[in-house]
Amino acid sequence: MSHIVTIETQVRDPAAIELACTRSKLPPAVFGTVMLFAETATGWQVQLPEWHYPVVCDVEHSRLHYDNFGGRWGNQVHLDLFLQAYAVEMAKLEARKQGFSALEQPLCDGSIKVTVHTGT
Hints:
27% of the residues lie in helices and 28% in strands. It has helices at 14-23, 76-97; strands at 30-36, 39-46, 55-58, 63-65, 101-106, 112-117. Strand 2 and strand 3 (55-58) form a beta hairpin. Helix 1 packs across helix 2 (76-97).
């Protein structure tokens, strides 16, 4: 039996953040406090390509803090790709935790299909 699931991502898992960074060929995430133009943010800092400031993943409150100045200091596409990588890695981690296997398949529209095999 097949089921289609849409995942709305909440960034909460440092291990999945690290896997998403590796997958996206980004520098490793660093935990700390950083100044984002006019305010500070604390969490896992992810440096996206050509972004002036890092994206800060506050896993405790499941919030992202960033300042890309409406796209002038960073292209939203890079954040979207990171979030997609995070969602795929998180789904695979959760499947493995429950003893299942997960396979992924890139689709023509840029989305990624993750199939979880439960063995039943």
